[in-house]
Amino acid sequence: MAAMIRLFRSSSSSSYSRYFSTAAVSETVKSQSYPRNPVTTNVEPKGKTVQWVFLGCPGVGKGTYASRLSTLLGVPHIATGDLVRDELKSSGSLSKQLAEIVNQGKLVSDEIILNLLSKRLENGEAKGEAGFILDGFPRTVRQAEILTEVTDIDLVVNLKLPESVLVEKCLGRRICSECGKNFNVASIDVAGENGAPRITMAPLNPPTQCISKLITRADDTEDIVKERLRIYWDKSQPVEDFYRSQGKLLEFDLPGGIPESWPKLLEVLNLDEQEHKLSAAA
Ligand code: AMP
Questions:
Q1: Maximum alpha-carbon separation in the chain
Q2: Which residues form the signal peptide (predicted)?
Q3: Which residues form the domain of 249?
Q4: For ligand 1, is residue 59 a contact (CB within 6 Å)?
Q5: Known catalytic residue: 139?
Q6: Are the CB atoms for 153 and 53 separated by under 8 Å?
Q7: Is 29 domain-assigned?
Q8: Which of 104, 132, 161, 188 can pair with 201 through a Cys bridge, CB separation 3.0 to 4.6 Å?
């Protein structure tokens, strides 16, 4: 992890000079085949960690599923969007500059993102963290190339939903300003695309204690969500191809909300929730 942090730091300050080859941060771990995707899911045997990336359009639910898996697997969930929002909340000099970019739905510069990510990894390392599930990074092919140069990624999960659902989900998203948890007030029921089944998602309602503290993200307005989706197709969709060509991309069409999608996701990742809970408790 230390090597990875150093390399991120050097890449954010040296205009991406060719730093060096891969830091063998992760060990290659047990691979199991997944029936529907030509990808192996490198799930950790006891004592090993995963280095996974979650890709997907804004609103698809990367944060929700990455966070659940991070709890299950005991690895940190690192969302660059959260790092950016934490920086926005601070009174640092970067905050004003970031607010303008983020509130327009644009991407922050690679240099800023790599700096925030290095800091987060450094803090994690000090706490003894190992492995990660990255969410929101990489978002450009350049970022993916840098990540490839600094560490080995085991698996890239690409979450997918029809665009009409993505917009509704972003507009319905609410965050508790106190506990930070995400909820969704949208009740989704849309016809599937290209003969796919209907997609329904019940609202993910907050508990009573959060109701009066709910806030909406400044970049979750209809115009900004559409701009973020446009940027996704332009800059981030090529990242899918980048990992697809490496045979690391696991495509996952979400069949609905959490109750339908979570068990299916565990199934395609060859993960047994009960087994992991028991081994974590042991
Ligand atoms: P998210 O929560 O992932 O939707 O991210 C919120 C915002 O943070 C994005 O719209 C970008 O402005 C910024 N951001 C997050 N991750 C990245 C990244 N990897 N590269 C550039 N900007 C990012």
A1: 52
A2: none
A3: 48-74+129-278
A4: no
A5: yes
A6: yes
A7: no
A8: 188
